Amino acid sequence: MAKMQTKSLNTPDEVRSLPKTKVEVINLGELTLMKLTFEPGWRWSEHVKPTVGTDSCEVPHFNYGLSGRLHVKMDDGTESEIGAGDAQLLPPGMMPG
Question: Which InterPro entries does the entry link to (predicted)?
């Protein structure tokens, strides 16, 4: 049976760095929550693709915008943009930035 858990991104379990990206991670049971902070000029194709080796992200995401804007293009050509207060569910096959 699952139990209640509380954690704060103010004290993440892990901090990861990619070019122009800071990733703060907390683990809650089987759920992983990440806060991503992108520097101006960040692009998936330039700053993530060389590290992961795929044309687009192969992991589904639930995004929530805290500030700024994030443009996403799917492998099928559909596009979307989120900003502060917007929520977005993305299947695998997206390329943000």
Answer: RmlC-like_jellyroll, RmlC_Cupin_sf
- In single-letter form, the type of residue at position 58 comes to E
Question: Alpha-carbon distance 81 to 88, whole Å?
Answer: 9
Burial of 57 by CB count in 10 Å (0-12 exposed, 13-18 middle, 19+ buried)?
A: buried
Q: Is residue 91 part of a domain?
A: yes
Kindly state whether residue 6 falls inside one of the protein's structural domains: no
- Check: CB of residue 80 under 8 Å from CB of residue 50: no
Q: What is the DSSP code (8-state) at residue 57?
A: B
Encoded amino acid at 79, one letter: E
Residues of the chain short of pLDDT 50, as ranges, are none
Whether the full predicted model's pTM is greater than 0.85, yes or no, is no
Count the domains in the chain.
1
